Amino acid sequence: MAGEGDDVKLLGTVVSPFAVRVRMALHLKGVSYEDLEQDVFDKGDLLLASNPVRKKVPVLLHAGRPVCESLVIVEYVDEVWAGAAPLLPADPHGRAVARFWAAYVDDKVVTAMLGILRATTDEERAERLDAALAAVRPLEDAFAECSGGKAFFAGDSVGYLDLALGCHLLWFEALREMFGVMIIDAGRTPRLAAWAGRFLETETAKKAASPIKSIVEYAGKLRAIWAAIAAAAN
Ligand SMILES: N[C@@H](CCC(=O)N[C@@H](CS)C(=O)NCC(=O)O)C(=O)O
């Protein structure tokens, strides 16, 4: 098993889906690491020094050297611990497709999800939900293409694109608890809904999971901050 003797630290937060993505990759590779919980509302010197450009979590510190941006980190982990559980497809075209959809998830799906959280009225939230459903819809066909009829985007086991989308599933669940919205549901995107169920049952997803209660609390805090900013601007 990889990990013995490696100096690996993860600057993250319990609720960050991007940190969860990295935790899942490290778990799949069997890499031992130290979790360094950060306060993103009062950033510490280590985070600011490790990610001076974006000032965001997650940051992977490997032998003291920082690697930033969760998708970049997952690729780094895949390359450094190449012997165990490959995450990206072996062929260049498969890798390009997986990277395309992972970038799509962070660009379109995450933006749409945050739109739901930012909405201040029921009408606005309904519009934002429509936008989120439209953003998720193409992933239904992407799943069919990438999985080739198997259980996961990567085939028989979880891979890069599974982590890219799967890390957001608990946030979707938190939004369902908060507002009753379903971003992935069996009626609209049946393959994706079945995949989500399988993904959340994997040991990797369970090990890296953020408690929904903590996500709901954090999301409430974000909404309060946005409301205060909006009030100050008026
Ligand atoms: N694209 C980044 C997104 C990271 C991100 O948005 N992190 C959030 C926590 S979930 C953060 O650090 N927020 C603090 C801030 O924006 O100041 C990645 O994939 O790592």
UniProtKB/TrEMBL annotation:
A GO CC term assigned to this protein in UniProt: cytosol
Keyword RNA-binding (UniProt): no
GO MF terms held by the record: glutathione transferase activity
Principal location listed in the UniProt entry: cytoplasm
Domain GST C-terminal: 91-222
Cell compartments where the protein resides: Cytoplasm, Cytosol
Gene3D superfamilies found in the cross-reference section: 1.20.1050.10, Glutaredoxin
A biological process term (GO) from this entry: glutathione metabolic process
EC number: 2.5.1.18
Pfam families noted in UniProt: GST_C_2, GST_N
Top-rank lineage group of the source organism: Eukaryota
Domain GST N-terminal span(s) in chain numbering: 6-85
Catalytic activity, as annotated: RX + glutathione = an S-substituted glutathione + a halide anion + H(+)
Keyword field: Cytoplasm, Transferase
Functional description taken from the UniProt entry: Is involved in the conjugation of reduced glutathione to a wide number of exogenous and endogenous hydrophobic electrophiles.
Homology family: Belongs to the GST superfamily. Tau family.
Descriptive protein name: Glutathione S-transferase
